[in-house]
Structure prediction request, 456 residues.
Amino acid sequence: MFANRLQSYGDRPSLILEDGLILSYAQLAQRADEIFADAILPSRTLIAIECENTVASVSAYLGALRGGYPALLVDAQLDEQLRKRLYRHFRVAYVHDAAGRWVSQDQPSPQVHPDVAVLLSTSGSTGSPKLVKLTAANLDANAASIAQYLQLGDDERPITSLPIHYSYGLSVLNSHLSVGGTVLLTGQPVTARKFWDMFREHGATSLAGVPTIYAMLKQLRFERMELPSLRTMTQAGGRLAPELVRWFSELATSRGQRFFVMYGQTEATARMAYVPSQKLPEKASSIGIPIPGGKLELVGEDGRVVEAIGETGELRYSGPNVMMGYASEVEDLAKPDLHEGVLLTGDLATRDEDGFFHVVGRIKRFIKVFGNRIGLDEVEEQLREDRYDVAVTGRDDLLVVAVRGAAEDIKEKLSSHVSARYRLHRSAIRVHTVEAFPLSTSGKVQYAELLKSLCP
Prediction:
């Protein structure tokens, strides 16, 4: 387990903090262990770590892994009532708060399966009581796989552009610590000058981002930024428009850098597929090929494997990074592995003649309008290709389109456009102008919240 090997890197720098303080691997291992030695917690006590991109949170997370304490990683900025409800629901015994203090919850710890190492919420911004159960082996396998296909070495210096309670942000931390890299630890957003000052001062070599981050970077004239240390950019956490994929790919190539598009889910610890950087120009709409040690295939509604090129099926992934299962109730924490390394992703996809996979929609991101099945992801993608800045949601017999930053008079035009394109009666279409889309802390559109706000 990579967390147990931290001290093997000795005096190598593990973390560089915003104030310039540098922590060696030996010092980080010591801090991680001291957090739990001072607390004197009973063995296998269920804890929660209220996470920020700080040395306190990182040390607590690593200390939990090293000490064998199952840890629920929670956004420290989550509404207090939602946090407390989550702790009560799963009978969390102790909380390590953002200030680095242990807070007893005055309730006995539940029984937790001995293989459970980390618990992540399926919706971190709402405190969803549906948790993903990950093992130390899951974390280790995915970190090793990512390090392999990104060719990570101990000279890497990633900067934390994503929160560590989010599986993508956590995977950046894990994969680099597993190879002895140096993580630039900051909670600053990419829109802040301090973020880029730290990036340049300490020579960050890589940048990770979800689609909204890359859209912002283009608006910020990223091509004009002088970032001589940058070598690699990675994107995951949702679909980036093909034109932006090509733009960043071409920019990276012109600078002698690499740009990777990746695909994953919390249920698979983080990554399941990636597009090699040299293949992006021709595979801009693809999620790529399986990560090392993983397998992707398509299955039909009858459960049979779909072999035909271009035929749609549900994407099924197999690999050592697949979760044990979900926990929706406290009793689920003790249940054994229910997946045995196999995950039905809920994504519909096709495979092309080169073996690259293309996601075409979500099984659950469909509605029926007057009996016709409508793929919300497909509608959103096509309207974005038509240069409408939209998020598409809805429920049966109602397609809801939110268009950002547009004048009110666009409603009639866009409604007519949608009606004509999809042969839908205007009564089944509702168009709203919004200033912004509701986003999670990881930058994903929260479709349920959007629908609730527009159609209560």
About this structure: The two ends are 47 Å apart (CA to CA). The chain has a mean pLDDT of 93.
